[in-house]
Amino acid sequence: MPDETTGPDRDRPGSLPPERPPGPLARRRQRDLGTRPFPLLTPEEWREPGGALRRMYESAQARAMETADWYLDDRVRMRLASQVLRGLAILLAAAGGLQPLAAAAGGTAGAQLGGGNLAWGYVLLAGAGVCVALDRILGLSSRWMRDITTAQRIQQRLVDFQFDWADLNARDAVGQEPVPVHDYLALLRAFLSDISSITQEETSEWVNEFQSAVAQLTNHSGDR
């Protein structure tokens, strides 16, 4: 039985926990980024620190992977919505610009209805402006780009964490002195803290952008 101050079991040196296939809850796309319960280990479980640390490693890794997957899923939704609004804006702007030309090309009948056609042109151009404004206020275009950047940061931090964990395992297996459990716990704590900081930074950017867009809209409305 390994000593309580050592790292993972020495009969499996340098081994990382096996990848577990995601369950049905992990596969479900949640609209909001949820919180994963932290594993609460009993004193009996800590008598075998190798198994206890592997369980905590798996929980931390799964939390990071689920967070990155959420941002990647959100990127798809935001990009689709942004493309729809931008596409509508282009179509409406083109139709609004061509409306007077079509009326002029219609000859006498077009000239008689020129005022109505011109009005429809303004309506179409206004619709294009509304689509662009919605994209800006909701932050769809900027959000999906932030999503992919945030997911990449989380994935890179996960890779660093995995290599740091493997390094501790290797030192514990071949070193003269066992690696204290505290070193593993410190690595876990730093990793989870960094993941939380990354998500908080992205959320703060979104809030600031949304508030700025609303303030600009309010100022424009007041000027009118």
Automatic annotation (TrEMBL):
Region (Disordered): 1-45
Keywords assigned: Membrane, Transmembrane, Transmembrane helix
Domain SMODS and SLOG-associating 2TM effector: 32-221
InterPro entries the UniProt entry points to: SLATT_2 (IPR040688)
Transmembrane segments: 84-107, 119-138
Signal sequence annotation: none
Pro residues bias: start-end ranges: 15-24
Pfam families hit by this protein: SLATT_2
NCBIfam families named among the record's database cross-references: SLATT_2 (NF033633)
The protein's name in its UniProt record: SLATT domain-containing protein
